[in-house]
Design a protein that fits this description.
GO terms for molecular function: heme binding; metal ion binding; peroxidase activity. Residues 67-346 form the Plant heme peroxidase family profile domain. By secondary structure, the protein is mainly alpha-helical. It has 13 helices and 10 strands. β6 and β7 form a beta hairpin. Bound molecules: protoporphyrin IX containing FE and 2-acetamido-2-deoxy-beta-D-glucopyranose (NAG).
């Protein structure tokens, strides 16, 4: 190849990458930089969120609740019902909290909505971010505190909500998989994306489902965004739970662990069981799929052509501690406890953590 054509090729490559890489300009604060000047105003809000909502940057109960809130706001959106089917990720769950927090599927969100409202007004956020922006921003910042999580995107510019979302759009743990998959399809998500979004239950506990299990985590590591949720959900019940199961709950063999009926069914449904299993011992695959599905969820019902990509304000998440980099069976469990649901591929080979069988403690609130 003559030298001339090499020069042309490399010039083309440079031009393309320059177009793809947006240049960051310094912010007036002299500390940060941003690809769009409007993003600069978010840095102090992010700091305020970390200090006042998340205890200085923990993956704590408020982070879990804030992530749940991103979903319960956004899923108020229906393709089939048109504009009257909710505004999606528009902050209506905060702006119209008197209405939406009465919906039974929104039980347990009162405290976090109040805390976020206060945080929004105290951090100078009013006028900079709408309630819809704030909910997604807090969720993305919060998730970044959980080791193993992907760095979620954040787009700025959701208008104020104009109406509450209708009731019955948020899925319930008592719903069948048919009902849940249809509800998600009506919001624009396929079944693989449903499974990906459920990685959120890796950093979760229950507050209201069973009054005698307040704080019960969904997996043994609720402070880590890891794949344990996908393993533990498939373990066969041993029937030693001490409390009566509530409607929407099924038995977990791990004492103190919450297992909701819908997760248990989705893990075993032939439409989703292989995607479910594919996340086990594949942290990168799970985190990536979750990040992509969350990017969609966070802008449901919004016109993204009018929004500004401020993803650079989201902190870089910590990676998982090395001792948690592989999926494991909790102490006392092995492959014999797995209720194999995916028929296409065998269950991954995992080792068992040493030590006695112990109950999992509740998440401190
Ligand atoms: C199939 C659809 C889903 C159902 C039926 C469902 C149901 C539930 C239930 C029943 C709880 C416990 C509530 C309580 O007792 O306090 C819960 C907690 C939670 N959910 Fe979901 N969920 C679904 C999907 C999602 C999605 C898509 C996300 C986020 C992307 C999410 C994030 C969370 C989080 C983070 C918690 C824990 C909240 C905390 O620790 O306070 N869920 N979910
Ligand atoms: C949106 O609502 C907030 C109160 O939540 C208000 O301060 C703000 O002015 C409203 N913005 C617009 C553009 O109406």
């Amino acid at each position: 190849m003559p030298l001339g054509s090499l020069v042309v090729i490399s010039a083309l490559v440079c031009a393309t990458s320059a177009a793809l890489t947006r240049r960051a300009v310094p912010c007036p604060d002299g500390v940060h930089s941003a690809t769009h000047p409007a993003c600069c105003a978010l840095y102090p809000i992010v700091d305020h969120i970390q200090q006042n909502l998340f205890d200085g940057g923990e993956c704590d109960d408020e982070v879990h609740e804030s992530l749940r809130l991103t979903f319960h706001d956004a899923i108020g959106f229906s393709l089939s019902q048109g504009p009257s089917g909710g505004g999606g990720a528009d902050g209506s769950i905060m702006s119209f909290s008197d209405t939406e927090l009465q919906f039974s599927a929104n039980g347990g969100l009162d405290d976090i909505v109040k805390m976020q409202e206060q945080c929004l007004s105290e951090c100078g956020g009013n006028g900079v971010v709408s309630p819809g922006d704030f909910i997604q921003l807090a969720g993305a910042v919060g998730v970044s505190n959980c080791p193993g999580a992907p760095r979620l995107k954040f787009l700025l510019g959701r208008p104020n909500a104009t109406a509450p979302a209708p009731d019955k759009l948020v899925p319930a743990p008592t719903d069948s998989t048919d009902v849940i998959f249809a509800r998600f399809a009506d919001a624009g998500f396929n079944t693989d994306e449903v499974v990906a979004l459920l990685a959120s239950h890796s950093i979760a506990s229950s507050k209201v489902l069973n009054p005698s299990m307040v704080g019960a985590p969904f997996d043994t590591t609720p402070e880590l965004f890891d794949t344990q949720f996908f393993v533990e959900e498939l373990l066969r019940p041993r029937g030693f739970h001490g409390t009566e199961l509530q409607s929407g709950q099924t038995d977990s063999p791990i004492e103190g662990e919450m297992r909701i009926m819908s997760d248990s069914l989705i893990a075993r449904d032939s439409r989703t069981s292989c995607t479910w299993q594919s996340f086990i011992n594949n942290q990168a695959r799970m985190a990536d799929a979750f990040g992509q599905a969350m990017a969609k969820l966070a802008v449901l019902g919004q016109d993204t052509s009018k929004m500004i990509d401020c993803s650079e304000v989201i902190p870089q998440p910590k990676s998982l501690p090395v001792e948690h980099s592989q999926s494991v069976f909790p102490p006392g469990f092995s492959n014999a406890d797995v209720e194999q649901a995916c028929s296409a591929t065998p269950f991954p080979k995992l080792s068992t953590l040493p030590g006695p069988v112990t109950p999992v403690p509740p998440v401190p609130s």
